Amino acid sequence: MASDPNRKVERDSGPTTPVRGAGADPWGVKRAENLLTSLQGVLSARVVVSPIGEVEEIHVLTQGGTAAKQVVRNVESALLAHLGLKVDHRKISVAQTAEVRPIEALDAHAVREQALRRGVLFNRIDFQTGGPGRVSLQVSLQVGDEEIQGAADAVDNARARLVGAARSTVAALEKVLTRGTFEVEGVQVVDAFGRRHALAGVLVGEGRGSRLLVGTCELGDSPEQAATLAVLDATNRWFASRR
After folding, report:
1. 109 located within any domain
2. DSSP H or E run through 136
């Protein structure tokens, strides 16, 4: 795109120079739009020209953080410096959006935000063979930037491992409790809505009183992990309100 020094158009909105080019883009509109979208913070740009190639409107969408007046000045300067095109600032409109990111990034952000609201996050559960017929379970949790761990031994059978996972979780939580105590009331496997779930009951004591917190998690490939998540489901709201 280049300006034509032999042609000047005076309008109420100020002098403009027609945008000229060649080929499928005779007025060089695409070239101008590509230039504008290369500017920092600009997400998209649209240049509208008259049938004779005179710039009538320029619409720019930007990320938040840059003042609209500064964006207009940037657009004017870029067009003049790179294309020799002088455009009246009144023809440039700027719309701003707070944040535009790929859908994958938005999904990850939403998951992260929801996780932070839950207070305590599950990291992993590890098993180690103990004495004859026994197993040691260690649960790792995340509280903000801090990783906490709790461990418990259990008889090496399905029911006892569920309770052991729940006790490991409670042992980890108690390391960061500022008040109150947790105690595992029990863990059961229940059938509901055609699926199997781990149902965990946790007694929480404060002062002379106590209350039962109940949480659930669908049973998956790891029943012990489901027991841990059921404990977190039971305790997270209470835990977050007391920290």
Report:
1. no
2. strand 134-143
Specify the pLDDT at position 242: 63
Same domain, 133 and 210: yes
Q: What are the tokens at 115?
A: 């996780």
Tell whether 165 is covered by a domain: yes
pTM of the model: 0.51
CB atoms within 10 A of CB 195: 9
Q: Which residues of 52-81 are buried (b: 16+ CB within 10 A; e: fewer)?
A: ebbbeebbbbbeeebeeeebbebbbebbee
Q: What is the CATH number of the domain that holds 175?
A: 3.30.160.270
One domain for residues 84 and 161: no
Which one, of 126, 194, 189, lies nearest residue 162 by Cα? 189
CB < 8 Å & 24+ apart, contacts of 149-155: 150/174, 150/175
Backbone angles phi, psi at 124, to 5 degrees: -165, 165
Please tell me whether residue 187 adopts helix, strand or coil conformation.
strand
- Which helix (H) or strand (E) segment holds residue 234: the answer is helix 223-242
Q: Which domain holds residue 20?
A: 1-99
Question: Using one digit for the tens of pLDDT, what is the confidence trace for 117-153?
Answer: 556 888 899 988 877 889 999 999 988 778 889 999 9
Q: What is the CATH number of the domain that holds 12?
A: 3.30.300.30
CA 223/CA 198 separation, integer angstroms: 7
Q: Centre a 10 Å sphere on the Cβ of residue 11 and count the other Cβ atoms it contains.
A: 11
Residue 110 included in any domain: no
- Rounded Cα distance, 14 and 9, in Å: 9
